[in-house]
Design a protein that fits this description.
The complex is a heterodimer of chains A (about 150) and B (about 425). Chain A is α/β, with parallel strands linked by helices and about 150 residues long. Chain A has a single domain, classed as Phosphohistidine domain (Glucose Oxidase, domain 1). Chain A contains three helices and eight strands. In chain A, strands 2-6-5-4-3-7-8 form a seven-stranded mixed β-barrel. In chain A, helix 2 (about 95-105) links the parallel strand 5 and strand 6. In chain A, helix 1 (about 70-80) runs parallel beside helix 2. Chain A is globular, with a radius of gyration of 14 Å. In chain A, about 45% of the residues are buried. Chain B has about 425 residues and is α/β, with parallel strands linked by helices. Chain B folds into three domains: about 1-180, Aconitase, domain 3; about 185-290; about 290-410, Aconitase, domain 3 (2-Layer Sandwich), CATH 3.30.499.10. Helices cover about 40% and strands about 15% of the residues of chain B. Chain B has 17 helices and 14 strands. In chain B, the strands form four sheets. Chain B has a five-stranded parallel β-sheet, sandwiched between helices. In chain B, strand 10 (about 300-310), helix 13 and strand 11 form a beta-alpha-beta unit. The model of chain B has no long low-confidence stretch (mean pLDDT about 95). The chains are: A alpha/beta (about 150), B alpha/beta (about 425).
């Protein structure tokens, strides 16, 4: 059965529920020019995680970066099923939230986008499984442990 | 609920409830959802919009535009359109696949169906009607945003895909950021007064300075002191476009040049700068070198007009190419808006340029859609934005140079560079 860690509370930028293995980025990523909207692969060769697939992962990065065309690329990735399962940020990012918002309104597919306080963000562990539940009241992020403890 | 954190007017509440039709309701829902993310507590009315969602990036952008158009969406404020993926006046220039061209054309049609003007230019500030000082607007396209804020003194945040058309359909934006006085004051000082006069007045200075500012100012608003007071709008265009390419600059002040900076104190809102970035000859030479990826080699392409060439810029080209012949190995493109092209044609300038071998590109731009015949070899440009993006987008090597050097190189078929600054 699944055990869960303590609840981490944050703010909702775009609602939805998802879980997946955390991909903790050490450097911000621009979706435009940085991610292939069809495959969901990081294609920015200057990014330390170049080549990594985002599909199904809970993507954590301190902040977004770059062009406003990133909204389109994220929405396109969500449409194609190649986007992250959820996105956790430290700072609100209009461009990322907008891509998720439009994909939800157009296709009914959610990619929750949330922000956590820096102290909570710092507890996230790369490669571990996290669940993100975000609604208009706020969000809860919990770590999931599978199997017997 | 995000909507509850917002104070909506009675009209906005009715719009959200669908009383002005489903397109307005959908567009306002996007604005209302994004308002708290932007830090806004209320919405603000705008009087004009400029949309860059008309450049085709994929199915999601097309689906969104066609959804709004099919719901009967009509823009509520005068709205201009940025470049598209196609040159409708010179369709033979497009070298991409047919499927993408069809989708790109559908996207253009959806936006014009919603009442946007088919201006197809990234330089809407060159059109006859442009925003006045202090006007609240929703503009997309990074170079247009920085020009509107800095040179016109109009007020816009960095809008882009999706949000631009939602603002046009509702005449509303989140009231935050550069829409408000408090967020428009300068923060970082760039003082040019230590530079030699010939460098401060050099043709390439605005572009190189903009590139340097974009790299160094971060999220802060730069203030330039020492730019010559007669600096042209075309130079300010290049400065802003460069700063919005290498960085995310949406507003700069140039003391004695731009309208919100009559004095240093006014530019900084009476406060001291957060910091000063040194503007040395060494720093500018390094920034200038970054705009080229090679120093020579067989010249195959010259591309001018990113952002779109103004009438004055085409006028400067005319005497340099009149009666000359571009080298047969070199393709020479000038990207401009269709309105400006028509004005140039009236003066006989288009014919003079075309006789020399210049190809005009309208409605789009040579670095965002497949137009260039040669995507290998060396390309020259006097545009810092083209120099910044073309190597990654197209795979070309770039030499950044002044107009005269670009033309002289095109006539000879080999790269001829400007002298370094010393």
């Amino acid at each position: 059965m699944t055990q869960t860690g303590p609840e981490i509370h944050g703010a909702t930028q775009s609602p939805g529920s998802a879980s997946g293995r955390l991909l903790l980025l050490t450097e911000p990523l621009s979706f435009w020019g940085g991610v292939d909207g069809v495959t969901g692969r990081i294609i920015d060769q200057r990014h330390p995680m170049a080549g990594t697939l985002l599909a199904g992962r809970v993507l954590a990065m301190p902040a977004g970066r770059g062009s406003s065309s990133s909204s389109s690329v994220l929405a396109e990735a969500i449409r194609n099923g190649s986007a992250p399962a959820a996105i956790i940020l430290e700072e609100p990012d209009l461009i990322i939230a907008l891509g998720a918002c439009v994909a939800r309104l157009l296709y009914g597919i959610t990619c929750p986008v949330v922000t956590l306080a820096p102290a909570d963000y710092a507890t996230l562990e790369d490669g571990q499984t996290y669940r993100v539940d975000a609604d208009d009241a706020g969000c809860v992020v919990t770590r999931e442990y599978s199997g017997p403890l | 609920m995000p909507a509850q954190a917002l104070h909506l007017s009675a009209e906005e509440t009715a719009m959200l409830a669908g009383e002005q039709g489903p397109a307005v309701a959908l567009a306002l829902e996007v604005i209302v959802r994004m308002a708290p993310v932007a830090g806004a507590e209320r919405l603000r009315e705008i009087t004009s919009a400029h949309i860059d969602g008309c450049l085709y990036h994929g199915q999601a952008g097309l689906d969104f535009a066609e959804r709004l158009a099919s719901l009967g969406g009509q823009v509520r404020v005068p709205t201009t359109l940025n470049v598209s993926s196609l040159d409708l006046l010179h369709p033979h220039l497009y070298r991409g696949d047919r499927e993408t061209a069809l989708a790109a054309r559908r996207l253009m049609d959806a936006y014009t169906q919603m009442g946007c003007r088919p201006t197809w230019t990234c330089a809407p500030y060159q059109l006859s009607q442009r925003p006045a000082f202090g006007e609240q607007i929703a503009w997309a396209e990074s170079n247009a945003i920085v020009f509107a804020n800095s040179v016109l003194g109009a007020r816009t945040n960095r809008y882009g895909d999706f949000l631009d058309i939602c603002a046009a359909l509702t005449a509303r934006v989140p009231d935050a950021g550069l829409h408000q006085d408090a967020h428009r004051y300068g923060q970082v000082l760039y003082d040019l007064r230590g530079l030699p006069e010939h460098v401060r007045r050099h043709e390439l200075l605005p572009a190189v300075l903009g590139h340097y500012i974009g790299h160094t100012t971060g999220n802060h608003i730069p203030v330039i002191v020492g730019l010559p007071p007669d600096t042209s709008e075309d130079s300010l265009k290049l400065l802003g476009a460069a700063a919005a390419s290498s960085g995310s600059v949406a507003l700069f002040h140039a003391v004695g040049v731009t309208p919100e900076a009559p004095t240093v104190a006014a530019a900084f809102g009476g406060r001291p700068p957060l910091r000063e970035e040194p503007v040395t000859l060494a720093a500018l030479n390094a920034a200038r070198a970054e705009l080229s990826t090679t120093s020579g080699g067989p010249l195959r392409t010259v591309s001018l007009g990113t952002p779109h060439a103004s009438l004055a810029e085409i006028g400067q080209l005319v005497p340099l190419v009149a009666g000359q012949t571009i080298h047969p190995e070199v393709d020479f493109y000038v990207s401009t808006g269709r309105d400006v092209l028509a004005q140039a044609a009236e003066r006989g300038w288009v014919e003079i340029c075309e006789q020399a071998g210049v190809r005009f590109v309208v409605d789009t731009c040579t670095y965002i859609t497949p137009i260039l015949r040669h995507t290998t070899g060396v390309a020259m440009t006097n545009s810092p934005k083209w120099a910044y993006y073309a190597p990654g987008n197209l795979g070309v090597d770039v030499v950044f140079a002044g107009l005269a050097a670009c033309v002289a190189s095109a006539l000879r078929g080999e790269v001829q560079r400007d002298a370094d600054w010393a």
